[in-house]
Amino acid sequence: MPMKTTERSPRQSRRHAPWPDIRVRIAVTNAAPSPTAVLHAENLPHDPAQRTDLLRRALRHVGQAGWHCTKVVIIEHCTDAEISCRFLQVQPGTDDRSRQFEESADCGNSMIAAAVACVAARPPVRLTIVNSATGLRIDTHFGDTSTRHVPVEADVTPRFHGQRPESFTLPGSDACWKVDGTPTTLLKAANPYVIVRAADLDVAVETLRKPDPGALLLDRLRRIRRHAARHLGLPGSSELPKIAVAEWTAAGVLTARTVYLGRWHPHLPLSAGISVAMAALVPRSTVFRSPRDEVSVSARASDIQVHLAQHDSLITRCSINGLAGELLAEVTVPAEQQ
């Protein structure tokens, strides 16, 4: 697979560097708003301050190579069967020399992108990807890794199997309670999410399927999210809780859109799809319509879909269809002179 590569300057010397050149792989899925920078922990310093400085420098170098990455995955351990990693969200509003990284969130797209970077040019393979900071576990099956767009089947059933959907509502909130005058559901199936129904905002499902559902709706969702963050005691600088607005289609599928770094997410984050699907199975939630054993969520008809199934009010399956990943580039960050 052809990749763009930047090479180390001949003037750089390993002998005078505090650590060697760092290889950064840039990968993405078809459901992500931007690429993910993938690094290996063994190449990073153990000291937190030094590691943060190195990550900042790596992202500057990656940006100079033409890749704007707002997400980072650090591979801690990798075998033929499992990848253990940590996800870092680059916080908005910080320049490239003072970037801060948030580690309390999950991003299924970035975890899968990191796995694509690890399995490139290997035969079709099954891998389990684990976020060691949060416990999110994704079982994946990668198709032909020699193609540009690697097909991916993803399953997160083990995380939720045998549990009741209502058990994921956040403590201190009801299945439906008002935030800033708007009915909402707060739950944490992956990331903490505020779920709002479009009909409660006088927004049609057709609006949600547009690439840009509009600035007025975006501003209202931002305001609701800020109120919910204060209720949960989360700092204003955090991207948590996240927020999604959803509505049922005539075909009985939930359409959902989310806000990412203050703007519309172009697709469906996996954590958002899981959260909205979970809320649809919770009686009295904002998007609960009628008792059902299965629910599907997507951003648009051609987008990925999250499927959630239950039996006797216990979750039996949670899977994602339509995913594909791509290894975009490999960038070498030169060793820094002492």
From TrEMBL:
Span list, region Disordered: 1-20
Basic and acidic residues bias locations: 1-10
Keyword terms, alphabetized: Isomerase
Classification via InterPro entries: PrpF-like
Family assignment from sequence similarity: Belongs to the PrpF family.
Protein's name according to its UniProt entry: Uncharacterized protein
Organism: Streptomyces lunalinharesii
